[in-house]
Design goal:
By secondary structure, the chain is an alpha/beta fold. It has helices spanning 37-42, 44-47, 49-53, 86-100, 112-123, 149-164, 169-183, 186-192, 196-202, 210-221, 250-258, 280-284, and strands spanning 3-6, 12-18, 27-30, 58-61, 104-110, 131-138, 236-241, 263-267. α6 packs antiparallel against α10 and α7 crosses α8 (186-192). The protein starts with a strand and ends in a 5-residue tail after the last helix.
């Protein structure tokens, strides 16, 4: 069952803490674009969340506006909620840590969550009341490329929804297949065989409003901390698949080269964007205390 807290601007952030009674240093997982906290659970066998939570508290949460989390209310005279920004999402992570009273923590961010994590560490510079003991960045980038295949796919879907209200069941299934081919690999999709509709259905479950995904795409579109990476002074582990079609491996190399002492783990060519989530042992490498 999820808990919630309300941010100063009125947004409600939904979260769950696994292993709340454990004594290890807590870890917080930050979702990627269009993802919800349940997506971590879908891949629990791979990310080995239960193994992590067996030693330490582990927080999973929904970014504002998606899953069970709610946007901030409109600020008069505006009649719509303030737009989502990457800076605001990073601030939400800080507010959640503050709410949990987690002053020392491990940080794990996937894809957009990796961008949020980088931004959060930069926001925490100069503070001695919060300490990120380690940061693990999965399939992410320090700068979003001008063309992003995932963003293009979602925007094409959003255009159909805007014009017709919704996709047909066949179009939804085709979108799910193309999405999986993008975030994993075409070969991985073929290997799912008759199980593909079940796997694709995971991405249709939960509250994932097209308008929110479009705002997330807009929020990350201008993300670029390349020139600030040298300011990050935290033990950092960067994990990336060589088969990543969304952010090619040079993006991971840029992060690792920019952060002093960062360790880079490049996974084989058959490992696509989201497949790093199926390799829990690699994620656990970053949690040493």
């Amino acid at each position: 069952m999820s808990s919630t807290f309300t941010s100063p601007d009125g947004a409600n952030i939904a979260y769950r803490v696994l292993g709340a009674d454990k004594k290890g240093l807590p870890a917080i997982l930050v979702c990627g674009l269009s993802s919800i906290k349940e997506d971590w659970a879908d891949f629990a066998d791979g990310i080995d969340m239960l193994a992590i939570a067996a030693e330490r508290p582990l927080c999973i949460f929904d970014n504002r506006g998606i899953g069970e989390s709610m946007l901030a209310p409109p600020m008069p005279p505006a009649i719509t909620s303030p737009p989502i920004t990457l800076l605001q999402m990073a601030t939400d992570v800080f507010l959640l840590l503050e709410h949990l009273n987690w002053r020392r923590f491990h940080l794990i961010g996937m894809s957009m969550g990796g961008m949020i994590s980088q931004q959060l560490i930069l926001l925490l510079r100069g503070r001695d009341d919060f300490e990120c003991v380690s940061m693990t960045i999965l399939c992410s980038t320090p700068k979003v490329p001008r063309y992003n295949i995932l963003a293009s796919l979602y925007m094409s879907r959003a255009k159909i929804v805007q014009e017709r209200g919704k996709l047909t069941p066949q179009e939804e299934m085709e979108f799910g297949k193309r999405l999986l081919e993008t975030v994993f690999t075409p070969q991985w999709v073929r290997e799912q065989g008759n199980n593909l509709p079940v796997v694709a259905g995971r991405y249709q479950m939960g509250k994932r409003p097209s308008k929110i995904i479009a705002q997330q795409i807009e929020a990350v579109g201008s993300f670029d901390v390349t020139d600030q990476l040298h300011l990050i002074k935290k033990p950092t582990l960067v994990i990336h698949g060589l088969g990543d079609r969304i952010f090619p491996a040079e993006n991971a190399e840029a992060i690792a080269n920019g952060i002093e002492g960062a360790k880079l783990v490049l996974l084989p060519q058959e490992v696509g964007h989201m497949q790093v989530s199926l390799l829990g042992s690699s994620v656990l490498m970053g949690l040493q205390s």
